[in-house]
Amino acid sequence: MLSTDNGNSVALVLLDLSSAFDMVDHKILISRLESYVGIQGIILKWFWSYLTNRKFSVYIGKHTSSVVHLSCGVPQGSILAPTLFSLYILPLGSLLCKHGVSFHLYADETQLYLPLKCNDSCSIEVLKRFGPSHDAIFQST
Question: What residue segments make up the domains of the chain, in order of their start?
Fold first, then answer.
């Protein structure tokens, strides 16, 4: 926010990841838990067990859909979901810092603070490249 303190104009870009909690790749998340957080051994195995082999079906009235196995995502509504998702997108923060972009991340919400004198298209291109490699689709709000 130093740009505004210095009297410079700043554009606030609000991003929302589509289906953020549904798109988490379990292998990538487990790798982040291990490499960024240092979780190992039985605790790491517990997280793997927590994330994998989940399935669901939909009930409407007396009708039930077939069972679908979930191959990705974190359990929505669980107390761990926002934290696990935040760990999953940790590299986004590093990437934004590398390009000098000020930001705030909270779960699937991202706020970018772009000084109007900087190359805005560069920052947007960084996000466009990050999204597909993490099965993420950013939507501007």
Answer: 2-140
